[in-house]
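FORM 7B: Structural annotation worksheet

SECTION A. Query
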Amino acid sequence: MPVLTEHWRVDAMLLSFEGRIGKLICIDNGNSEWVPKTHKAQEVFVWRMPTNLGVAASWNLGIKSTPFSAGWMLVNHDVQFGEGGTAAFYASADKTNIVLGGKPNWSCVWIGSQVVQTIGLFHEGFHPAYFEDTDFESRARRANIEVVLSTAAVNHRNSSTLASSEKFQQRNLLTFQSNMHRFNERQQRPWQELKDWELDRRLLQSWD
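SECTION B. Predicted structure
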């Protein structure tokens, strides 16, 4: 989970999360002194970055660092789960599919390991945010991967990071257009050419 500002929202999300977490990975792109307040995770990793990695690179780092997982749950820092929401969301998840929850859909996501084996990781050219999710979903659909739209109670305060900084809002006027242009370019290419990383090779070459 990447977080750049308003780290307290992660604590609120974790408080609303029902159940246990195997590995909680927080990518602190704001390089703060914050530590998540939770006892729900078996293992907690907080990685403080000297600069903002961006959403795609942060998600990729989480996936690359846990390659033996059956899949990955990617949650925006400004999400909160309603009663029964966690179990309802996870009920649709398996190794072969993508599950999208919240509004907009990519505020809470499950990505099965076989999805990454098929289409690779998020494209880090979408920086720092926007279109990395649209591009990933487009590649998945073109590869005939199942995408489930969950009706689980996942509540999202949209664009909290943008709202927290006028500077970010001004920069986004430029970067959003640039990312959209990159997305449109990539749409013209076969999805097989857009695979950035090979999970199968990572597992085959493992020293773990």
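SECTION C. Observations
Strands lie at 2-3, 21-28, 41-48, 71-75, 79-81, 98-101, 108-112, 147-149, 154-156. The helical segments are 8-16, 55-64, 85-90, 113-119, 132-142, 160-163, 166-187, 199-204.

SECTION D. Sign-off
Analyst initials: ____
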